[in-house]
Amino acid sequence: MRKNSIKNTRINGEVQRELSLIIQKEIKDPRIHMMTSVTAAEVAPDLKTCKVYISVLGNDREKEDTLAGLRSAEGYIRRLLAKNLNLRNTPAISFRLDTSIEYGVAMSRKIADLESHETEENDNEEA
Known about the structure:
Blueprint: H1 6-26, E1 36-43, E2 49-56, H2 60-72, H3 74-84, E3 92-97, H4 100-126
Parallel strand pairs: 2-3
Antiparallel strand pairs: 1-2
Helix pairs in contact: 1-3
């Protein structure tokens, strides 16, 4: 994987920030869940494509609906992005579901369960 240049890193951050605002304030699609956040944006160095990773706090059905709503609004979102950011090319956006937050929560839960299980065993041994 290529290392991002400082310029590309800055563009990624600006695109991520702008897409977050667009999704929260501009999109009126009822399929898009209220608790949708943009976790990352990866713009290609040639500014032609952009992978946007989103996280949705909800069940699987809400995640699928949100992804479908965002994909149907890609053209509108791209037009707003072009209006708000001054880039040479406005990248074509593709939305992806980011499950890293859920994975982290699940791992934290497993670690907490393991720790509580160990303390129960230690309490039983002392008694």
